[in-house]
Each structure stands twice: as structure tokens, then as C-alpha cells.
Amino acid sequence: MENKVEYQKKPAQTPVEMERTRNRKVYVPKVDIIETGHSMVMYADIPGVDEKSVEVTVEKNVLTITGTVIPQEFPGRSIAYSEYDVGDYERAFTISDEVDRDRIGAVVKNGVLKLTLQKAPQAEVKKITVRTE
Amino acid sequence: MVGPAIWRFGRMDPLHEMQRLQGEMNRVFSGLGQHFSPELPPVNAWVGESDVVVTAELPGVDPSKVDVSVVGDTLTISGARDAEILKEGESYHRQERNHGRFTRSLQLPFHVEAGRVEAKYDKGILRITLPRAEADKPKKVAVTCE
């Protein structure tokens, strides 16, 4: 079969699909989000990621978690059985204005990222007492 | 003449049959993908000449609560991941991560030296190195000529 050269331009998908420069799989980490009185705590499962390879960014109202995984290699052995694939992690959340951008805490332990999002003081729940007249 | 009546033979739905076949093919050609229970921690196994390395993704597990045992050629990994205990006034927005006890057994391609098995837990990944038993190693037989 002869090699066909495509001269035709490829139509874009709407909205334009984001592509990564690195050809590696990307997984969405599972998360738990717990709301407490004055903060939100988020736990994300990112096995294979440590504090050097995880990145947490906040831009406007989008919080993004990115974890880069270096696949483990075992020289002299070949893979015989596989149930999981290795790839990077990426997930983004929209956060409301009540989260204090300057006080976001991030800790990685045993492949779990713990994010603590403090609520800004003015956003804390104010209880209004209702009176009768 | 072969008309459309052929499809009605044996009440076979051609579309369904085709989809089933396609699913079967995908399963076969995806190669490494095997059937396993999604609630168990997934494992990978690398086999070398003198040992086998098994890795498992177990994020957020206390390493002291993970049990690794070997009997003959069967490896068993068991442990537990505790759920966060909510205090008064706390609530879940999302709960996607799984919790609870798990036990995973795996049959290895050969018998292993149970005394020299090493298990390491790092970045949420458990790595177990199991050396092949001396008695199980292939013996080279010299061919002599008379």
C-alpha cells in the first residue's frame, strides 16, 4: 500500500480538545472533599507521586492538581501480568470566592495529596438571630 | 438467492452479534487487560529469570497494616484503608476513594524463596520482590556423546 500524504487540513473539535506535548496517559485522581466549619479538606489518590512531582495551582477560580509519574522500570524483567497502567494525574476544580487563595495547604504522604482550603474570614458562616416583634 | 431471511435463522440479532464479537476482539487484543474485580487494588507483575517483582497501587495505606504472605507459589497481599472519621459539623462534598479491607491473592509462575521476599512501600506503591526458589530453578542438563 502506498503512503498517502494528507494535504487536507483537519477540522477542529468544538471546543478545541487540549492535547499534551508528552505522549503519556493521563488519569483523573479520585478525591474526597470534606467540608468543615472554616475549611475544606481535599484528599486525592495519586500513587507514584511525591512532593517534588506534584503541582497545585490556583488561577482565578480554578484549582488544578497535576502529578507527574515516572514509570518504574525493572531491568532484566518483562511484564507478565498487568492490571493497571502508569500515567500522570490531572484534575481541576472550580472554587468559590470564599476560599482564601493565600492559605492553601498541600501535603503529600503515601501517594495521597491532602489539600486544606481555608475559608476567608468574611465568608465564614454568620448566624443571624431571628427575633419576634 | 440469499435474502435477508438468513439473519432470522436461529433468532440471531446481527447487530448485537457484531457488537458482542467486537467486544470480544477488543478484550483479546487489548493484550494485558484481564478480568479482575475493580474494588481490589490492581497489581502488575514483572517476571525475570531469577525473580518476580509485583507492584500494587495502594495509596494512603498504613504500611504497618499491610500483610504480605507467601505460601508455595501463591502471594497474598491484604490490608485496610481507614475512612476519614468525620467530626461534628463536617460533611462530605464528594467521596470517591474506596475504603475498607482488601485481600488479593496471586499465583506466581514459580515457587519462591519465602525467607528472602522483600516488600517496600513508597509513594503509595507497594513493591514486592520474590526470588525464585533454588529447587525450582531450571537445571541445565549436559548432553554427552558416547
Can I get a quick summary?
The complex is a heterodimer of chains A (133) and B (146). Chain A is 0% helix and 44% strand. With 133 residues, chain A is mostly beta strands.
Overview of this protein structure:
The complex is a heterodimer of chains A (133) and B (146). Chain A has 133 residues and is mainly beta. Chain A contains no helices and 9 strands. In chain A, 18% of the residues are buried. Chain B is flat. In chain B, the strands form 2 sheets. Chain B has a 4-stranded antiparallel beta sheet, with no helix packed on it. In chain B, strands 3-4-6 form a 3-stranded antiparallel beta sheet, with no helix packed on it. In chain B, a hairpin with a 2-residue loop joins strand 1 and strand 2. The interface between A and B is large, with 31 and 42 residues. Strand 6 of chain A pairs antiparallel with strand 1 of chain B, so a sheet runs across the interface.
Q: How confident overall, as mean pLDDT of chain A?
A: 85
Largest interface comes to: A-B, 31 and 42 residues
Uncertain stretches of chain B: 1-8, 31-36
Q: Share of helix among residues of chain B?
A: 10-25%
**What is the string of helix and strand elements of chain B?**
HEEEEEEEE
Structural class of chain A: mainly beta
Which structural category fits the helices and strands of chain B? mainly beta
Can you lay out the helices and strands and say which pair or pack?
The complex is a heterodimer of chains A (133) and B (146).
Chain A: E1 26-27, E2 31-35, E3 39-45, E4 54-59, E5 62-67, E6 77-82, E7 88-94, E8 99-109, E9 112-119
Parallel strand pairs in A: 1-7
Antiparallel strand pairs in A: 2-3, 3-9, 4-5, 5-7, 8-9
Chain B: H1 14-29, E1 43-48, E2 51-57, E3 67-71, E4 74-81, E5 91-95, E6 100-107, E7 118-122, E8 125-131
List keywords for this structure.
heterodimer, A: 133 residues, mainly beta, four-stranded mixed sheet, four-stranded antiparallel sheet, 44% strand, flat, B: 146 residues, three-stranded antiparallel sheet, 1 helix, 11% helix
